[in-house]
Design goal:
The chain has 98 residues and is mainly alpha-helical. The chain has 4 helices and 2 strands, in the order αααββα. The protein has a single domain, classed as Orthogonal Bundle (Arc Repressor Mutant, subunit A), CATH 1.10.10. β1 and β2 form a beta hairpin.
């Protein structure tokens, strides 16, 4: 099983798709998962797993965060200091940097 933060080449492509969707204003969890799935050809479950894996507030490990909107809606936004290219480092690499 992959450790949290471990990115693959497939993740890098999907992260790019997710960043594009969020930038275009597609920000609710389910609409975002659907858009990632449609644009990349992966399942919605894969898209949801990607969203969860890279959600958080540490820009070294994560790419986006969410806030609760009306009716519990999860509204995603990009982390301001997240790099524009490349997947996050592994949590082990993160620990080495700190």
């Amino acid at each position: 099983m992959a450790e949290i933060g471990l990115a693959t080449a497939d993740d890098a492509e999907l992260i790019g798709v997710a960043i594009t969707c969020i930038s275009e204003g597609i920000d609710s969890k389910m609409l975002l998962a659907r858009a990632i799935s449609e644009r990349s050809g992966v399942s919605r479950v894969t898209a949801l797993n990607l969203l969860e894996r890279y959600t958080g507030d540490d820009p070294v490990l994560h790419r986006w965060q969410f806030n609760r909107g009306a009716h519990g809606r999860q509204e995603y936004s990009l982390l301001v200091s997240a790099p524009d290219n490349g997947p996050p480092v592994t949590s082990r690499e993160h620990d080495d940097l700190c």
